[in-house]
Amino acid sequence: MRKMDEIRQPILNLVARHKNEVQPQICPCGSAVRILTKADSDIAGFHITTIRDAAWHYHKKTTEIYHVLEGKGRLEVGDACIPLTPGMTVLIPVGVPHRGEGDFKTIIVSVPPFDAEDEFCWEPAP
Question: What is the pTM of this model?
Answer without folding.
Answer: 0.86
